[in-house]
Amino acid sequence: MEEKYFEISAENLKKFVDGIIADNFEVIAPIDKDGETFYGKLGKFEEANLDILLPKMSYKEFLLPKTETLLEYSFSGVDTEIKDGLEAVVGANEKRVIFGGRPCDAAAGPIMEKVFNWDYKDEFFNERFKNLTIVSIACEKPDNYCFCTEMQLSPESSYGSDILLKKAGDKYFAIVTSEKGLNLVKPYISLFKETAKDKVPADKDWKKLFEIERTKSFLDKNFEHNYFQDRFLSCIGCGVCTYTCPTCHCFDIQDEGNLKEGRRIRNWDSCQFGIFTLHTSGHNPRVTQGDRYRQRLMHKFKIYSEKFDKYLCVGCGRCSRNCPEDIDIKEVAKDLADMA
Amino acid sequence: MANTKTDEKLQKIAKDLLESGEVSLVIGYAKGSNPQRMRPLFITKPEEADKLSFNHHAVQDLAVFLKKPEVKKFGKIGIVVKGCDEKAVNALIQEYQLSRENIKIIGVECNGVIRQNLADKGETGVSESTVYDKCLICEEHTPVLYDFLVESEEPKLNLSGSVKPYAKIEELESMSADEKNAFWAKEFDKCIKCYACRQACPLCYCSRCIVEKNMPQWIDTNSEETGNAQWNLIRAYHLSGRCIGCGECERACPVNIPLMLINEKMARDINNMFGYKSGLDINAKPVFGVFSESDFNDFIK
User: Fold this and answer.
1) Ramachandran region of residue A276, left (φ > 0), alpha (ψ -120 to 50) or beta?
2) pLDDT tens, A59-73?
3) Interchain CB contacts (distance < 8 Å): A and B
4) Could you tell me if A185 and A176 are in contact, meaning their C-beta atoms sit under 8 angstroms apart?
5) Which residue of B has its CA nearest to A65?
6) In this structure, are B110 and B174 located in the same domain?
7) Fewer Cβ neighbours under 10 Å: the N or C end of chain B?
8) Any domain includes B286
9) What is the SS3 string spanning chain B?
10) How far apart are CA B34 and CA A161, in angstroms?
11) Is residue B181 part of a domain?
12) Among chain A residues, CA nearest to B198
């Protein structure tokens, strides 16, 4: 679909969001809770905190839940009955909207979609992704941890958003990029004023501090470099970087139950955990934290781009902000670029 | 930013230790990713010592690194510790995880560290409303044990009594069992089973954590009500009588579960029941590692 451009006043935006909530849309937006902002279910527009840069966690749990049931089984003594967990996902949450996220979070969806449709089509992910409508708000003031620009995106990118809102004084420009976005707007079209592309303010000239291609170039040739062992002595393997990251998607499959009944579930996992690559033999190919952090850098800034033409990082900076030991991945990526 | 006297003293101690070969590694703090953050620094050469620094943004408990095999292999280590962190070193010595001879304790006098979430928003003032609750009840502003002591140039915390640390504990104590359950069920519902609390804790050093055992899977790994309660409760139990209250678990938690309410409550109970406080005496026997005939037994009915 060709992009459509609209203007909407701040007041009408409020009416729009409250309207879709009243229409039984489940609107997920940044909400304050105990002094911190997380994505949560919006009761009304006013509850959303659209002033902060980013909520602490990404919204990937709506694409890849922290825990999801893949199948359930019950054994009668003779026959085994299997219930496919996918049944609960198909058609569910068709009226779920993520409102007020940023372009970085939005970009994570299509980037992850590639690996979830690579050698195997992950229907759980696909169903959720298909049903989600993303309405993002462009950033005006990234902080020193942000590096979406270096990751070949931008604070004003519409990649992955069904609607991108750009603030301009007391109104917003709305760039509708998909049929899903248009369908959301249609019942409230009277609140929107259609406009032309040249009326939408041009993107600012965002400067890059380093070239991600140079980071990759270092990673291509320096697997055994001491940097990885020395720099990540301070990493405690807590995995907060991977859990709060919008594009990290490693998972662990667990079986729970007994002879009579049980289920197979998929949980979030982390390559930063010590036992992530522990073999049954007892051998661990990634035995130091330096080995494990190197792997994270490789996956994000080299391997994924070789397979899918996109880096597995949107530059949101959460890993840096949330790291208890203050490891700044933007600094690290720049270090590698400088050493290339 | 020019070196403070504290920084200069720290740097000299580290430089001397590395030059003499008394230690092969010094773990300290350095400037962080923004002016209101510090980060851990690992130095092996005397000339690197001038990067060391310490101020009221030094929130990390550096004792957490003493459990890492990658750090242990350095053998003799010098470590910069605040009073709270130093208690973790003591507890590790008590539990035979660390030899007293292999650690040079560089104690720093600390008069409070600013909550990192406030610091990230620009807070630079140390006051009873900006520091962690643990700072308000701290009795180890000067570490109880050290090989070197670096005095603080910062003023002592002014406690007016208007801020009540861990006030929620009294509130919880007055609740019924059902109300307490409801409170914690809501908090644990947030848990995403990332185990950052465990990783950030200097005393969670088991090479194979109970949650990593899967034959059988004693503790569910899913992020659901039962699994979340199981994990948080088992960690609380495994730390009871051992936790020294550094608060790193709560700080590391990405979903802001108030873990220190549990830890502080446990510490108070242990002190009331057994007259024991963890981490104050390297010669004391761990409270749940020994028994005495005079221990109370009125719970046996």
Assistant:
1) alpha
2) 999 999 999 999 999
3) 108
4) yes
5) B223
6) no
7) C
8) no
9) CCCCHHHHHHHHHHHHHHHHCCCCEEEEEEECCCCCCEEEEEECCHHHHHHCECCCCCCCCHHHHHHCHHHHCCCCEEEEECHHHHHHHHHHHHCCCCCHHHEEEEEECCCCCECHHHHCCCCCCCCCCCECHHHHCCCCCCCCCCCEEECCCCCCCCCCCCCCCCHHHHHHHCCCHHHHHHHHHHHHCCCCCCCHHHHHCCCCCCCCCHHHCECCECCCCCCCHHHHHHHHHHHHHHHCCCCCCCCHHHHHCCCCCCHHHHHHHHHHHHHHHHCCCCCCCCCCCCCCCCCCCCCCCCCCC
10) 31
11) yes
12) A238
- Tell me: ipTM over 0.90: yes
Q: Are residues B107 and B206 in the same domain?
A: no
In tens, the pLDDT along B222-238 reads 999 888 999 999 999 99
B120 and B178 in a single domain? The answer is no
Residue A123 has pLDDT above 90, yes or no: yes
> Looking at chain B from residue 262 to 291, which residues have their Cβ under 8 Å from any Cβ of chain A?
none
- Domain range holding B216? 167-274
Give the separation between CA A121 and CA B25, rounded to whole angstroms: 49
Query: Does residue B88 share a domain with residue B183?
Result: no
Q: List chain A domain ranges.
A: 4-339
**Do B35 and B137 share a domain, yes or no?**
yes
**Average pLDDT score, chain A:** 96
Chain B partners within 8 Å of A254 (Cβ)? 214, 217, 221-222
* Judgement on whether residues B185 and B267 belong to the same structural domain of the protein: yes
Regarding whether B105 and B73 lie in a shared domain, the answer is yes
Residues 41-60 of B with CB under 8 A from A: 41-42, 60
Strand-pair partners of B114: B131
Does residue B124 fall inside a structural domain?
A: yes
Give how far Cα B202 sits from Cα of B92, B93, B106, B241, Å.
8, 12, 17, 14
Domain end position, chosen among B124, B150, B176: B150
Q: What is the DSSP string of A66-126?
A: SEEEEEEEEE-SS-EEEEEGGGGTTTTTTTEEEEEE-HHHHHHHHHHHHHTTSSS--HHHH
The pair of three-digit structure tokens given for residue A272, joined into one six-digit string: 């930063």
> Which of A98, A67, A101, A99 lies closest to A85, judged by CA?
A67
CB-based burial, A177-212: b 16+ in 10 Å, e otherwise: bbebbeebbeebeebbeeeeeeebeeeeebeeebeb
Q: Which of B120, B214, B254 sits opposite A243 (nearest CB)?
A: B254
pTM over 0.80: yes
Q: What is the pLDDT of residue B300?
A: 84
Measured between CB atoms, does B17 come within 8 Å of chain A?
Answer: no
> Would residue B15 count as lying in a domain?
yes
Q: Residue B1's pLDDT band (boundaries 50, 70, 90)?
A: very low
What pLDDT, on the 0 to 100 scale, is given for residue B195? 95
For A234, nearest residue in chain B (alpha carbons): B40
Judge whether B254 and B194 are in contact, CB under 8 Å: yes
Question: Predicted confidence band at B103 (pLDDT cuts at 50, 70, 90)?
Answer: very high
Q: Per the structure, how many domains does chain B have?
A: 2
Residue finishing a domain among B123, B150, B177? B150
* Cβ neighbours, 10 Å, residue A83: 13
Which residue, chain included where needed, has tokens 């720099």?
A: A231
Q: Which amino acid is at A290?
A: G
Closest to A38 in 3D by CA, of A101, A121, A124: A101
Q: What is the pLDDT of residues B141-161, one digit of tens each?
A: 999 999 999 998 888 988 898
